[in-house]
Amino acid sequence: MAARNGSTIIDGKAFASGVRARVAEHVGRLVADHGITPGLAVVLVGEDPASQVYVRNKGVQTREAGMASFEHKLPAETAQAELMALIARLNADPSVHGILVQLPLPGHMDADAVINAIDPKKDVDG
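RESULT FIELD:
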């Protein structure tokens, strides 16, 4: 739909739905042609309500697209070394193709160090 000033108004929900449908198509072809099911691991540390909603929605959308969803929910008091060990395991796991660590992290963690520990080939936030 065109606006009066010549710009175009985009229906964001419809656009996003189309993108998700195209992604699901590509995932289906990847599975059928190569036997590979893409896997996304999402890591949530703590109980931030907005982050919990985001992670839950990301899991639903991942599964709806035909991908594997791996959710790792850790308590806020988790030691950074424990989180780093989890990231190392996810980096080495061939069924995990993407890793997302939900920010913010608890104050005792160095977010830069955690993010930098993710294999760049698996870092979905880039």
